[in-house]
Automatic annotation (TrEMBL):
<feature type="signal peptide">
    <location>
        <begin position="1"/>
        <end position="26"/>
    </location>
</feature>
<keyword id="KW-0325">Glycoprotein</keyword>
<dbReference type="Pfam" id="PF00657">
    <property type="entry name" value="Lipase_GDSL"/>
</dbReference>
<keyword id="KW-0732">Signal</keyword>
<keyword id="KW-0378">Hydrolase</keyword>
<dbReference type="InterPro" id="IPR036514">
    <property type="entry name" value="SGNH_hydro_sf"/>
</dbReference>
<dbReference type="GO" id="GO:0016788">
    <property type="term" value="F:hydrolase activity, acting on ester bonds"/>
</dbReference>
<dbReference type="InterPro" id="IPR035669">
    <property type="entry name" value="SGNH_plant_lipase-like"/>
</dbReference>
<dbReference type="InterPro" id="IPR001087">
    <property type="entry name" value="GDSL"/>
</dbReference>
<comment type="similarity">
    <text>Belongs to the 'GDSL' lipolytic enzyme family.</text>
</comment>
<protein>
    <recommendedName>
        <fullName>GDSL esterase/lipase</fullName>
    </recommendedName>
</protein>
Length: 388
């Protein structure tokens, strides 16, 4: 064959292969999830508890009080924090707006996703909040169904009726990133009402509920999942305060070892669950994110990183009695409950939730993929494992 013709055939064949790959995995040009450097997620849908609640608990049950939000938003902004949460840093990393809570009826914008997380939520029913994960999933199903129905009724630009501008686009549901940050309250509620052994025994059932929830999203077309494990619950200052310590139960960082051991067992089984889902559903991408290691590293190196003792918290008080963040009490002429003035040096904001400074550090160490399985950054969490 003529060498020129042969070269032409080789080039044509290469172009055909490239076109097939692009058709299967997307072009990476912003119109969908691609095989390029970034996935360009157009939306995020989050499920979780107070660690990622951006205003649901305020809208539904009880307003989050000042000084929450003081370090960034200038007002509480529905977050149990002085500023941004890890979820907010996820949005920033993906160049998306902060997620509006599904339960909030005012000022919401769902164009780039929605947040179903609610403070106090657990995976299983019967915990601290009525908005357990099953309810959040049902809310998502209704949200998705109504969004599709309403989207087709509205005008493109609002000139002759309501605009589509703040609605999720129906085609984005299959391209979105679905984030899960929940499970801590299942353990916390168990510690309060049962024994550590009973909490450990409940883990398989807790994770069975989580797996079912994830599969419901998968059945609705979700394909990209970013799943956080649970943090070192034994390092939360209020857990340390209320824990009746026995010799050898507090570690070198002041954390409750038995509670952290249960959290680690939860995470071990959670990772196995994620790997099983990955094996059973090869057309989806399941990323397991080791938040525990990031948080424990922060607590372990607090002094070296410029933070105060990680067991000190900034908002609220505990002097033989508990004063919630945002409230004050006068005892023998002394006012308790005033927040600290150096929020950026505290890891714990209120004894239960992390400060903005801590959340920023944690986000920096998990979003790059160094603590994930597979080891991909959140901006590349659309790639199937065989292409990682």
């Amino acid at each position: 064959m003529d060498p020129v013709k042969l070269l032409g055939l080789v080039v044509l064949l290469a172009l055909c292969i490239l076109c097939q790959l692009t058709a299967v995995h997307g072009g990476g040009d912003g119109g969908g999830v691609g095989i390029g450097r970034g996935c360009k997620f157009s939306a995020v849908y989050n499920f979780g508890d107070s660690n990622s609640d951006t205003g649901a608990i305020s809208a539904a049950l009880l307003e989050v009080l000042p000084p929450n939000g003081e370090s960034f938003f200038g007002n509480p902004a529905g977050r149990f924090c002085d500023g941004r949460l890890v979820l907010d840093f996820i949005a920033e990393e993906l160049k998306l707006p902060y997620l509006s809570p599904y339960l909030d009826s005012l000022g919401t914008n769902f164009r780039h996703g929605a947040n179903f997380a609610t403070g106090g939520s657990s995976i299983r029913p019967g915990g601290f909040s009525p908005f357990h994960l099953g309810i959040q999933i049902n809310q998502f199903l209704r949200f998705k169904s109504l969004t599709k129905a309403l989207y087709n009724q509205l005008t493109p630009n609002g000139k002759r009726g309501p605009s589509k501008g703040k609605l999720s686009r129906p085609e984005d549901f299959s391209k979105a990133l679905y984030t899960f940050d929940i499970g801590q309250n299942d353990l916390a509620f168990g510690f309060q009402h049962t024994t550590e052994e009973q909490v450990t025994a409940s883990i398989p059932d807790i994770l069975a509920n989580l797996s079912q929830a994830i599969l419901k999203v998968y059945e609705e077309g979700g394909r990209f999942f970013w799943i956080h494990n649970t943090g070192p619950i034994g390092c939360l200052p209020y857990n340390v305060i209320y824990y009746k310590s026995k010799p050898g139960t507090i570690d070198e960082n002041g954390c409750v070892k038995p509670q952290n051991a249960v959290a680690q067992e939860f995470n071990r089984q959670l990772k196995d669950m994620v790997l099983k889902l990955r094996g059973e559903h090869p057309l989806a991408v399941f990323t397991y994110v080791d938040v525990y290691s990031a948080k424990y590293a922060l607590i372990s190196h607090a002094k070296d990183l410029g933070f105060v003792d990680p067991m000190e918290f900034c908002c609220g008080s505990f002097y033989g009695y508990h004063i919630d963040c945002g409230k004050k009490a006068t005892v023998n002429g002394t006012v308790y409950g005033n927040p600290c003035t150096d929020t950026a040096r505290h890891i714990s904001w209120d004894g239960i939730h992390y400060s903005q400074a801590a959340n920023m550090w944690i986000a920096h160490h998990i979003l790059n993929g160094s603590l994930s399985d597979p080891s991909v950054s959140i901006g590349e969490a659309c790639h199937y494992p065989k292409h990682v």
